[in-house]
Write a structure and sequence with these properties.
Layout: H1 4-23, E1 26-34, E2 45-48, E3 53-56, E4 62-67, E5 70-77, E6 84-90, E7 95-102, H2 109-114, H3 118-123, E8 129-132, H4 134-139, H5 149-153, E9 159-161, E10 169-171, E11 179-183, E12 186-187, E13 206-212, E14 226-232, E15 241-246, E16 250-261, E17 270-280, H6 282-289, E18 303-315, E19 321-336, E20 343-360, E21 368-384, E22 394-411, E23 415-433, E24 439-459, E25 463-474, E26 479-491, E27 496-507, E28 509-511, E29 525-527, E30 546-559, E31 562-579, E32 591-609, E33 612-628, E34 634-638, E35 645-655, E36 661-670, E37 674-675, E38 678-684, E39 702-707, E40 714-715, E41 719-733, E42 736-745, E43 753-756, E44 763-765, E45 770-778
């Protein structure tokens, strides 16, 4: 790993050189929009025909090209859109702003949503990166016919999903707390509902999703494993539109449109709105849907949730805009006793937030300035009834503000310079009970500040060099963390590309969920402690800051219309702070510093042409943690999500002269999950239950469990499942249509193990076969 100070010096030199070069040229900048909706078109190619150069629009639809003075012809192209040609006369040191509108082509609209961009693959490193479009989300067979990001993320290479009920996503060896998930730049702490098939994100409101599974650059911080960055679209600038959808699982709607329109033609100024809401009533409908399946399903699935998201967009004609948004996500679940199906615990979390993002393009500068500001609050509680002392009520809260400002310069040959500043403040509160009923209470506050620099340079369309560095400061730990990162790509040819990324990462967010847990819906968060903690060897660690090191390589090969991607990767989680689950006395430490090592290799293949879409991903990974067991011994053991083999196949085909019938299927198979075996039982009596009058000889104690010495020494059975769906679109009018979707989840009713009750030895399975019909009105 190279020195961070040397990297910073190199970056500053490159910035100075770039500024000098920019001053010698003029600049053509602007935005590319969808003419019908006014939505910015991301990753659209803007080429300079008579200069043999070009750029690609960013997430805001923005582009900027620095050129010598002269007359130039710009060509903007996007799959599924008619191209547009713009002629620009550029004077020395001048800045010319252009707005390019692209019209949708009726033929090939399917391709625009599901096709990859060849230019993006050649000009960006994209190591460990998957970009998800709304069209791809809708191709996947989904539970209840409801397309959702939670279900699509499961097919990404390196992503492990632990189950339909209370399942979580583990990305290339990292736990959910080690993955940063953002909604328009704002942290979402609990993005997936307790019925793990659904997320808080409305599919129809998503513009795009970027998933960084390893080796991400310095733009992202305070997470040691992965990033999921979700961006929502703006409201329709020209007319009101929306959807209304009903299924056996939920009802949802989206409506968007203009509040204030410009009177000038092709003027992008105005105010738009977007509002989405969805409500699940699965706890009620599942009782009839599963009445013939026996217990526990005939008693219903005790999950329900409500999600609301709203957004206002204030747009200027020059492309500058301000987004104001708010959200409220609410999730309930009742945990049932396996024998009599009575409620033994109430689980509930809420997430609320209010914030904004802005984009500014100064008329006198080629830079794009963007930023965010927000406040959010996340609460979670688990309250038990008539259960042993090791599961007493738990409560957790995390709230705070986030602000950031970024500056982006688009350089010739798809190169880029970006830097930014972030400041955030957090408060966490936790009440937690350990194995002996010992209470742990934490109340922490922290202010964090970060400064990052990123530079990407393309050398002759062959070699791409992307150094970046992040300087992160954690006030509660008084810790300054320099984090250098590096990305490389070499284009052997237009169809064969080699890539590599590495970096240093840190975070001060700790999860209450242990890597030794199998089924545990409670996921609380707290800031890293300021108390002294020891590692597994009993040695005090110098800081409670968690750190990790990534290295990921890869090769991309395009054979005709097949895109192949092979990526070996490794993550060294040098320090992972955990709650001390074996705390026996008040004097024992609340935390212990563990460590982890994850490695693997993933292969994916995509074919997209005409009416056919095929996607296959398979991978091998090994994830182990080293920590202290209940006897105080050091153990290295597989994590509960350490399934060594995982594979997904997705197929979609479009039928009909009007391409109005979509058929799709998904098959998933993965190797068994590990678990800690039960060695025996004993009567756990309380010698001081009633003080001095306690009679231990006549007392009826609780049933205690003796676990096997080896943590996660056993394995469950193999998991596999087939889902299918068929969607028919009925055109009601020029602006209105009806989608009818018939879907079957778990077609051949595979009994995949959810968990085994340790007391009764009753096996509880994941969801059985689930047919459903969804009706969606688009207007």
């Amino acid at each position: 790993m190279f020195k961070s100070t040397g990297l910073l010096a190199a970056l500053l030199l490159l910035i100075s050189f770039t500024a000098i070069a920019q001053n010698q040229n003029g600049t053509i900048k602007g935005f590319v929009y969808d003419k019908k909706t006014g939505e910015p078109l991301i990753y659209t190619n803007v080429s300079v025909i008579n200069a043999k150069t070009g750029v690609q629009t960013d997430i805001n639809g923005y582009f900027s090209i620095s050129l010598p003075a002269g007359s130039y012809t710009l060509l903007a192209t996007g799959i599924g859109y008619d191209s547009s040609i713009v002629v620009v006369n550029l004077l020395p040191d001048a800045i010319v702003t252009k707005k390019i509108m692209l019209s949708q082509r009726e033929v090939g609209l399917k391709e625009v949503e599901i096709s990859g961009h060849k230019t993006d693959k050649i000009t960006h490193i994209n190591t460990g990166v998957t970009n998800i479009t709304p069209g791809e989300l809708k191709l996947l067979p989904s539970a209840g016919g409801e397309p959702d990001l939670a279900q699509f993320l499961q097919v990404i290479p390196g992503v492990i999903f632990t189950g339909d009920q209370g399942g979580q996503l583990y990305i290339r060896g990292g736990s959910p707390a080690q993955t940063g998930i953002y909604l328009d730049g704002i942290t979402i702490y609990s993005p997936f509902h307790s019925i793990g098939l659904f997320s808080v994100f409305e599919t129809e409101a998503i513009r795009n999703v970027d998933v960084y599974t390893a080796g991400f650059n310095a733009q992202y911080g305070n997470r040691t494993s992965a990033i999921v960055d979700v961006h929502t679209k703006d409201g329709n600038k020209n007319e009101a539109s929306g959807i209304v959808s009903v299924s056996p699982i939920m009802a949802r709607f989206l409506i968007d449109g203009p509040l204030l329109k410009s009177k000038k033609k092709d003027n992008n100024a105005g105010i738009t709105y977007l509002l989405t809401a969805k409500n699940s009533y699965l706890d009620q409908t599942s009782k009839s849907l599963y009445s013939g399946f026996g217990e526990p399903f005939s008693s219903g699935l005790p999950y329900k949730f409500t999600d609301v998201f709203g957004k206002l967009t204030f747009s200027g004609d020059n492309g500058s805009k301000l987004n104001i948004f708010g959200f409220n996500f609410d999730d309930h679940a009742n945990l049932l006793n396996d024998s009599d199906h009575a409620t033994i615990a109430n689980y509930h979390w809420t997430a609320t937030g209010l914030g904004g993002t802005f984009v500014v393009t100064p008329g006198t500068s080629s830079a794009l300035i963007d930023g965010k500001f927000a406040y959010s609050n996340y609460n979670i509680g688990l309250n038990q009834v008539n259960v042993p002392t090791d599961t007493l009520p738990r409560n957790s809260q995390i709230n705070g503000f986030e602000t950031a400002i970024n500056f982006t310069y688009f350089l010739p040959n798809y190169s880029q310079l970006k830097y930014g500043v972030e400041v955030s403040g957090f408060h966490t509160a936790l009440t937690y009970y350990g194995a002996q009923g010992i209470q742990t209470t934490e109340n922490r506050q922290s202010t964090m500040a970060a400064l990052y620099f990123l530079f990407r340079h393309n050398f002759s369309s062959r070699f791409i060099f992307e150094p970046s560095i992040r300087f992160q400061y954690y006030s509660e730990l008084n810790k300054f963390s320099p984090e250098p990162r590096l990305g490389l790509k070499y284009n052997v040819s237009d169809n064969v590309r080699l890539k590599f990324a590495t970096g240093v990462y840190s975070q001060n967010i700790i999860s209450t969920k242990s890597d030794q847990d199998i089924v545990n819906l409670f996921t609380g968060f707290l800031l890293a402690p300021d108390q002294q903690i020891a590692n597994v060897h009993g040695q005090n660690v110098p800081t409670a800051l968690q750190t990790a090191y990534h290295a990921v390589g890869g090769i991309e090969v395009d054979i005709d219309k097949v895109e192949l991607n092979l990526e070996p990767w490794i993550k060294d989680f040098a320090q992972v702070d955990e709650l001390n689950r074996y705390k026996l006395t008040v004097q024992d430490p609340d935390f212990v510093a563990a460590s982890g090592l994850a490695s693997g290799v993933d292969l994916s293949a995509k074919y997209s042409h005409g009416r056919v879409y095929l996607w296959c991903a398979m991978g091998y990974q090994k994830v182990t943690y080293t920590s202290i067991d209940g006897t105080g011994n050091i153990q290295t053991y597989p994590t509960p999500f350490d399934t060594r083999f995982n594979s997904n196949v997705v197929a979609a085909y479009t039928l009909g002269k009007k391409k109005d019938l979509d058929l799709s299927a998904r098959f998933n198979i993965h190797a068994p999950f590990p678990f800690t075996q039960t060695q025996g039982y004993y009567e756990n009596v309380n010698p001081v239950a009633t003080g001095l009058s306690t009679n231990v000889l006549q007392q009826n104690g609780n049933l205690g469990l003796i676990y096997a010495n080896q943590i996660n020494g056993g394995r469950l059975s193999w998991y596999h499942r087939l889902d299918i769906s068929a969607k028919k679109r009925l055109q009601l009018s020029r602006k209105s249509s009806l989608d009818l979707t018939f879907a079957i989840t778990n077609v051949y009713d595979r009994q995949n193990v959810f968990y085994v009750d340790r007391i009764t030895n009753v096996i509880v399975y994941q969801l059985p076969i689930f047919p459903s019909i969804n009706v969606t009105w688009n207007f």
